[in-house]
Each structure stands twice: as C-alpha cells, then as structure tokens.
Amino acid sequence: MRKTLRAHFSVKGTGIHTGVYAEVEVLPSFSEKGIYFSYQNAASGEQGYIPCHVANVVSTRRCTVLGNGEHTVSTVEHLLATLHANGITDAELKIDGPEVPILDGSGAEIQKKIDEAGIEEYEGDDWSVLVIDEPLEFTCHTSGAEYHLTPSEAYELEAVLEYDNALLGGMKADWQYGDDYAEKIAPARTFSLYSEVAGLLKGGMIQGGSLKNALVVLDDDLTEEDVKSDLNKYISGGSDVSIRNHVINGPMFFENEPARHKILDLLGDLSLLNLRIQGRVSATRPGHTGNYNLARYLINAFYG
C-alpha cells in the first residue's frame, strides 16, 4: 500500500537563506509518482516539476537544494523529513517561491498540519527496503562527516556532534523510525554557533534568519555583552536578547536538541533515496553534504 494526504494543507513564511516570502501547498497525489515539487513560471505561466530524488540535488551548502536545470527549491529537508517520518509515499508540493519557509526552524508545524489533514492509503507498491546486512563505513571527504552503518531489524538513526564548544561538544541523539517523531524529533530546531551566524550575516546570507527560527549557541570565548553589541548591527532590538544556559533566547526544548535536529536533517536527506532503510545509521559530524554523499554511496553500493 502507498500513502498520501487525505486533504491538502499549506505552509507559508520566510525562507531562512533568501529572506523571500514563500508558500508551499501540500496536495494529495494518487499517481504513484512519489513526492515532487511543482511550480509555475510567473512570466510565461509554464509549469515545471522537480521530483524529490537524490539525482536532483544541485547544492548542499547550508541546506539541501533540488533543481531540474531551470528551477531550484532550497531548504527542502525539514518538509521531506516530516513527510517521510509519516510514511507518506506520494504528494505534490506546489511551491510559490525559491525556498521552503523555515517556520520556527523545525518540522513541528508541518507535523501538526499532517495530523490535521490525515493520511490515506491506496493501492500500489510501498517503498522498497534497503537492508543493511553487514557493517559499512563511509567518510565524506568533502565535509569530514563519518557514517557507520550496521544491521538492525528497524530503521535507526544516531547523530553525534563534535564541536569545540562546552554545550555542543560530544552531544548525541538517537531515534528509531516510528518512535513518536512528532514529539521527539519534529520540534528540534535548526542551530548554529553564534560565530557562524555572525559570519553569515556579514556575508549577506541567512536573510530570513532570526532568533525565532533557530537556536543560536554562544561560543565559549564570547560574553553576553559581546553578542548584544554585535547583534545590534544586524538585528533590530538585538540588545534585548538574553542568554540562558549558553543559548541565545533559550532554553532548548531538549537537552540534546541540536543533535535531534541533525537526525531530522539526516532523515530528510536520506528520504531522497525514495526507499526505507532497514539498519542503523550512526553519523558523526553529519551535515547536508555528508548526508547527500552517503546517499550516493548507498546507491552505488546496493544498485551499482
């Protein structure tokens, strides 16, 4: 059996990287075409489609970007992770804008919308299953991310962070597919060290980023006064921020929220394989580039 939405829903808001307002309407699909983005050219009225597949990844810098040579859609990972976690095999993602809205930086609002819309099964072949039947090791030489894959009866994900930071150093999280994604993974927000955010702001990136859609972790060598002074240059009211337990405008929802968010990203990126993994994937220092290259490695290893 395949699964799609019982009713359509929309999410709208600003893209974290472009700062451009966008809307995505998530529509039921009974065509066995999988999950795909659709769009309409504002000038010509011509429609286009981008299947959500690893073959259509065109960039992994700071987010996962899909494209078809004529059009791209950025920051697809949170939406795709949440659809995948709910077992949805087919949906049309009708997008108006260049980037999926960041919302609060997590998958929580999307999960709520799915719960409200409902899920419907229909006749057709379910995802194929990629079975990890022996230990595998993969290192992404571009990013340094390391992945250790071992046999398991379930689909398990583990994320291990390695930062030179008192809060993030050695943080880890694990999750098993089907184990209450809505409560344990969906609410985990995207995160960054303050030094990374400051650099991106100075470089003109994360135009839609704010302290409301990301966790920002204080670097060990910075003080609250340093941050407030610097933020005032980029964010209105930056001097009003507070720092609680090393998190700007904290606290975190979970003591290991950043590691849980890495699981969300990993789940979304691996969903582009259009199958379900049976096995345990343990990722150390994971990111979108490493996740994408892991997906390519798995295709080559299992399908030639």
From TrEMBL:
GO terms for cellular component: membrane. Keywords: Hydrolase, Lipid A biosynthesis, Lipid biosynthesis, Lipid metabolism, Metal-binding, Zinc. The keyword Zinc applies. It holds the Pfam family LpxC. Its cofactor is Zn(2+). PANTHER family: UDP-3-O-ACYL-N-ACETYLGLUCOSAMINE DEACETYLASE 1, MITOCHONDRIAL-RELATED. This is UDP-3-O-acyl-N-acetylglucosamine deacetylase.
